[in-house]
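Closing statement on the magnesium ion sub-project.
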Amino acid sequence: MKNVLNTKDVVKVLKIIAKRIEENKDYITDLDAILGDGDHWANMNMGYQKIVSIEEELLELNLADLFKKVGMTLMSTIGGSSGVLYGDAFITAHKSLIGVEEMDKFKIHEVLDSGLNAMMKRGNAKPGDKTMIDTLYQAVKAYKESLDNNDEFEITINKMVKAAEEGMESTKEMEAAKGRAFYRTDKGVGHIDPGAVTMYYQIQELAQYIML
Ligand code: ADP
Ligand code: MG
C-alpha cells in the first residue's frame, strides 16, 4: 500500500495504463464502432503510447510539469474529443500540484476533482450524459465521501474503484446526451460507452498501483 505518489509513481502508472489500453483494442474499438466512429481505442492508444515514448523526459519533471506535459501531449497526439478532454483535465490538474513533491490522499482527490471539473466544463457534459464523465464522477464522489468518513486509505481506494465500475456500467442503459451516440436514433441504449470503459481502466490501474 502506498500513501503518497511522486513523479516516478505517476510515470509508472501511466505506463501500466498504456499497456492496459493496448491490450483491449478489440473490446473498445467494437464499442466505439457501435456508439461512435470506431476510433476511441486508436485515439487513446496513440496518446498513451506517445507518453510511454517520452518516459525519460517525464521522469525529469516535477509533478506539476509532468501533468502539464502529459496533458499537452495527449491534446496534440489525440485527434478526437478525448484528446481535448483529457488534455484539458491534466493541464488544469497541474495547477493543484505546483510546489507539491508527493501527492497524499487529499491531493490525489484534489487532482481527480479538478480534472473532472475541467472535463465537464470543456465537454459541456454532466453525469448521466453517457460519457467517460459517468465513470470519473462516481469515482470522485465516492472518494470524497470516504475521505469525509475518515476511512482508511485502502477502503477509500476500494470504494473509488467500485463506484467507477458502477458508473461505467450505468452508461449501458443511458440515452446519450453528448458525443456521437447522441445522433443515433436509439441514443445508444443497451451499450456501454467506450470512453466510460477507458476511464475505468485508468482509475482501476491507479488504484491497483496504490494498493501494491
Ligand atoms: P470522437 O467522439 O471525437 O470520435 P473519441 O472516439 O476519442 O472521440 O472519444 C469518444 C468518447 O468521448 C465517448 O465515448 C465519450 O465517453 C466521450 N465524449 C464525447 N463527447 C463528450 C463530451 N462532450 N463530454 C465528455 N465526454 C465526451
Ligand atoms: Mg470516436
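The chain has a mean pLDDT of 97. With this model delivered, the sub-project is considered complete and its resources will be redirected to Aim 3.
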